[in-house]
Design brief:
The chain is an alpha+beta fold. Helices cover 39% and strands 28% of the residues.
Amino acid sequence: MTLMEKITIRPAVPKDARFIAQVVCTAIASQEGLRSYCGEEYEKVITQIAETKGTQYSYENTLIAAVDGQPAGGIVAYDGALLHPLRSKTWDIIESQTGKRPCIADETEAGECYIDSLAVMPAFRNKGIAKALILALSEKVANMGIDYVGLLVDEDNEKGQALYKSVGFTYINDSEFLGHKMYHLQRKTTK
């Protein structure tokens, strides 16, 4: 049996919140950035956000890939039209924990389902899990009636760009997010 046959992709549930926080932290990859927005206990704060309905990192917006039942990766994505209400509730939690309310430029808009965070745990990398998550998300998004899946990728992240292009993402425009030069990529959904 190949690894691809062992991968199960399922919607996340509240008990996945801690793993979702690990996915988000891995995707962001900057402990300094995480601390600046969520405080010293950033993983605890993101776990609280992930277990709360109506937030950016909510389990409601997450698909989990498991290999032999063990969580291996996840993708957090939401309708870009819902960015502001999702962000407001997310920031309410951050503010309640840190006393500060973040100020971040919009990274998406109506018309696309935005991949906020995508990460595969180190032991499971380079086995097709990220690609499987993207394709599963694209199918889910098509069933929601949204025509595009979008994301931002760091202009220096050649490996990420190659992955996204391999599953049909194309360049839309340049962007900047949290001080990094990024490329905005989109993929037409499969429906």
